[in-house]
Amino acid sequence: MGDKARLLETRRLVGAPADGSDQDGDRNPSSYGPGGQGEGSSPDAGCATEAADLELETARRRAAESGDPASLSMLGALLLRRGDLDGAERHLRAATAEGDRSAANNLGVLLHQRGYADEAAAWWRVAAVAGSAPAAHALGRYHRERGDEPAAEYWLRQSAESGHALGAYALADLLEHRSDVDAERWFRSAAERGHREAAYRLARILDGRSPGAQARSGGLDDGLGGSLVPSTNSRLVAVGGGDTSVRELRAAAAAGGRRPDGPAGEAEQWYRQAAARGHRRAALHLGTLLEARGETQEAARWYLTSAKDGEPRAACALGFLLRDAGDTDSAAVWWRRAAQEGDGNAANALGALHADRGEPQQAERWYRTALDAGDVNGAYNLGLLCAEQGRTAQAEQWYRRAAYAGHKEAANALAVLLLQGGDSAGAEPWFSKAAEAGSVDAAFNLGILYAGRDEDETAFQWYERAAAAGHTDAALQVAMALLREGGPEAGEEAERHLRTAVKGGNAEAAFRLGALLDRDDDGHGRFECEEWYERAARQGHRRAQVRLGMLVAERGDVVAAAHWYRQAAEAGSRNGAFNLGLLLAREGSEQEAALWWARAAEAGHGRAALRLALLAARRGDLAEGRLWCAQAVELGPAEVAERAARLRDALSQELSA
Question: Where is the composition biased (Basic and acidic residues) (predicted)?
């Protein structure tokens, strides 16, 4: 082998110093090292050791025989890799004296390991000037560590433009620190050369452009007036603090949609490349993207891979996936593992699991663990737990702790607690703080608060704000206010809000949407209104049951009409009882009809009282007829009272004749 060939081989064998970039996984290696392949154990470790010994012996013999710089450099590199610094230094200095740039680079690595950073930089400069990309990378890192960013950029750019992956990565890292858009180009360059941390960082940049990025930057009641609600989620399990929690990652991935194209699709490709090379955080993010597309089996595999590599958020995510599949016992195992590694999200999930199982002491233990891990949701969940147990004072303390830490739903829950205790003045600022922070429930609750003070315009503004954010009960309140205003435009807007409200399963909203459509003269509106009446009726809405009974009665379906009238009547609807009486009377069951009319009349139904009066008069029971007439006159409405008065007078004349 000629000298030139041996020199090329030397340069190929001697790698760059490590750059602390997680190139070897999510571990943090020392900033500088002899480079090359890692020396971790493997099933073939014995064979590898024998091969290394043979390589070293061959290099020794070649150096002794030829004494050329390339052989000395190779021998020095091998000794450096084996940790023989004294032996390596002698050979590297000899090769460097003869102008071997690889030897100069590795001499710098050796001196850096011994703590002589400045002398190491001098040798790296020699090698870099001679064209060594690894030395330029090392020199750039040296200058960055000392705060000389212009010099660092110069040498890192030299390395990167020479095609050195670690140099490209380090340059990208420096540029990203300055918010320089050119960072993406160099992350891509390093990633294309197999640098897995660069692939991960590139994926994160691309992922930040996806529709779910905004979600990452952050993780009702029936009735006319609505009711105060602490939160749409009774138990939150998001983690606070440094890394994005798995709950936020999953939400962001879901918000990004399921189509693997655009920036999200390219991000997925780079996540895959990094994950396939053992990058545990890339495996975690890949899992969230796959889960959002419904590919839960593959997502679980990546979560498992990441979790086994020590990523607690992946263990937490795997727990959620198992819980969603109904395997809460296995979910608890992974949550416990993640919680023990400091994941507050998992600790909260464990707390919620124990709370749902009726184990408040265990729940409290894990919520406190979450709080100790820096997760403010632990305080919020402790507040919820205490509130459920009637420990109001303790609940208020925990809510306050979380609210002062900026937890918007805790602020809303605290306001609800204060309002329930009669302190509306104390509740209002907490509602406002929570609503301004983005709590949809707090905005709705402010609407209720102002409506209770008859400040309808302000109440409407808060209802409208909550409705715009998807709060279905607020949408109902907005629709009702618009319907009170009247007008065709108000009707169209009210219909839009009612259609939003029914998505929350609100029976009142379904009834009001049916009633609005019932006003339309075209057949389609009448047909659709029956669908909404039936939805509300099946939820026990009495007025909807009566209206549905009337519609099916018009079609001649007496059996269905009787069913719905009876449902309403037995639930206390006087109109349902009256209409059921009419139906039974028409079918010849006057005696049973009288029983339902009596129930309706006793509930204040004037027409039912008049019907009973007429029925008594036909039977010849004039005294009873006169009594029912008197009740009908009292109950009204006006036309009923007028007819009942005439009948009462006639019956009085008969009795006095």
Answer: 1-12
Tokens representing 209 are 């452009």
Residue 31 near residue 19 (C-beta atoms within 8 A): yes
Is residue 9 packed enough to be buried (19+ CB in 10 Å), middle (13-18) or exposed (0-12)?
A: middle
Residues 6+ apart with CB under 8 A from 372: 378
User: Are the beta carbons of 302 and 284 closer than 8 angstroms?
Assistant: yes
Structure tokens, 95: 């090769």
| Torsion angle defined by CA atoms of residues 59, 60, 62 and 63, in that order, rounded to the nearest 10 degrees | 110
Per domain, the residue ranges of the chain are 494-656
Tokens (6 digits) for 653: 């004349």
Phi, psi of 444 (to 5 degrees): -65, -45
Spatial distance between the Cα atoms of 341 and 88, rounded to a whole number of angstroms: 41
**Token pair for 349:** 């999930």
Most confident residue range from 92-106, 126-140, 208-222, 525-539: 126-140
274 neighbors 200 (Cβ within 8 angstroms): yes
Ordered DSSP codes for 182-238: THHHHHHHHHHTT-HHHHHHHHHHHHTTSTTHHHHT-----SSS----S-SSSS--P
Cα separation of 157 and 164, whole Å?
10
Asked if 77 and 34 count as a contact pair (C-beta separation under 8 A), the reply is: yes
CATH C-level class of 494-656: mainly alpha
Which has more pLDDT, 55 or 236?
Answer: 55
**Which amino acid, 630?**
A
Positive/negative CA dihedral, 98, 101, 106, 108: positive
Q: Are 243 and 204 in contact (CB under 8 A)?
A: no
DSSP states along 327-367:
-HHHHHHHHHHHHHTT-HHHHHHHHHHHHHTT-HHHHHHHH
- The upper half-sphere exposure of residue 320, i.e. CA atoms within 13 Å in the direction of its Cβ, equals 26
Question: Is-contact 437 408, C-beta < 8 A?
Answer: yes
> What is the four-CA torsion angle of 244, 246, 252, 258, rounded to 10 degrees?
140
CA distance 492 to 499: 11
Which range has the worst mean pLDDT, 65-69, 284-288, 573-577, 620-624?
65-69
CA–CA gap between residue 139 and residue 158 (Å, rounded): 10
The whole-number average pLDDT for the span 93-117 is: 93
- What phi and psi values does residue 471 have, to the nearest 5 degrees? -75, 115
Residue 374 tokens, joined: 């820096």
Give the Cα separation of 45 and 76 in Å (integer): 22
CB-based contact 316:334 (threshold 8 Å): yes
Contacts of 202 (CB under 8 A, 6+ apart): 184, 187, 188, 191, 267, 270
Q: What is the mean pLDDT of the chain?
A: 84
Give tens-digit pLDDT for 523-539. 555 678 999 999 999 99
Confidence class of residue 87 from pLDDT cuts 50, 70 and 90? confident
